[in-house]
Amino acid sequence: MASADEHRPDERPFPPDAHFGEATPGKIGMWIFLLSDANMFAGLLLAYGILRGGSEVWRPPAQPALGINFTAGLTFLLICSSVTMVMAYAAMAEGDRKKAVRFLLLTALGGVLFLCGQYHEYFGIWHAGLSEQGLDFGSSAYASTFYVTTGFHGAHVFSGVVLLLLTALSTGRGKATIHDVEAVGLFWHFVDLIWILVFTLIYLIPE
Amino acid sequence: MSSAHASRKQYWFIWLYLLVLTLAEVGVANISSLSKSWIVSALVLLAVVKAALVGLFYMHLVHETNVLKWTVAIPMATPVIYAVVLIAEASWRLS
Predict the structure, then answer these.
(1) Nearest-angstrom CA–CA distance, A53 and B85
(2) Complex ipTM above 0.95?
């Protein structure tokens, strides 16, 4: 009797490799990309750490402090979007594409809400944003490192949302495989992982 | 089916741990009686644990071969060593 794998050769487990097991070339490629990306973030966080470690007063008195509670909410949002992402993967593992598409779209929604939150934090929607409170890019190392690091992360969230929407479309059409969903998932979880570090280092460390 | 069910259960447990650790971080950051060095150490430790949970369970590193685990761990650890040296030096110059 023919197995389902024979009809979907692209979803077969990759032939085991002595060093990388059943990891597909796509997955290994995504990991290599993420490592290079991680080192870009490391450069930004290093610059922040060195500037902050070497300054007597980090936040100029006229500039606003960063809001921890609101950003903790954004952190929670990204954690929730990570769990919907693994649920999309689990649905693909069971061959339930409709459910996978729903979870991929929910994950993308989490990313969109995060970006709205970040916009509100910068520019203000329902109350004054940081830029209106005097946190201008270039006005201090405190302001510049904040905008560059969180903005670079925000660009990753935006890219992740686009990738998630494209993958949801492709999954719905029956084209994307579980390996594609896993690769997009790796990128999305990486965005969450980096935010965990950014949230701790930029927002939580006390003055 | 049962392994998928087990994975789902594990995913939700990790979500719960991440939520609790995030609340712990916010709590630690607001403790005024602790010295700054203790707060920073605790926050960094909590962040590393959270990042490890995401990497190991959501990014499935726990199921990968040792070669792939080390391929990821070594480049990730190098900037940390560099950061400790450079930030310590910047702080030392200030003192």
Answers:
(1) 11
(2) no
A136-180: pLDDT as tens digits? 999 999 999 999 999 999 999 999 999 999 999 999 999 999 999
Which residues lie below 8 Å from residue B3, measured CB to CB, with a gap of 6+?
Answer: none
Q: Is the C-alpha dihedral spanning A170, A175, A177, A180 positive or negative?
A: negative
Contacts of A61 (CB under 8 A, 6+ apart): none
By Cβ distance, the residue of B36, B51, B71 closest to A206 is B36
pLDDT tens column, A29-45: 999 999 999 999 999 99
What separation, in Å, do the N-terminal and C-terminal C-alpha atoms of chain A show?
Answer: 67
Q: Alpha helix locations (H) across chain B?
A: 2-29, 36-53, 66-94
Q: Among A83, A89, A107, pick the best mutation site for testing chain B contact (most B Cβ within 10 A).
A: A83
Residue A116 · residue A152 · CB < 8 Å: no
Distance in angstroms (rounded) separating the CA atoms of residues A104 and A181: 9
Query: If we measure between CA atoms, which residue out of A82, A89, A113 comes closest to residue A192?
Result: A82
- Contact state of B90 with A53 under an 8 Å Cβ cutoff: yes
Name the pTM for this structure: 0.91
Cβ of residue A65 closer than 8 Å to a chain B Cβ: no
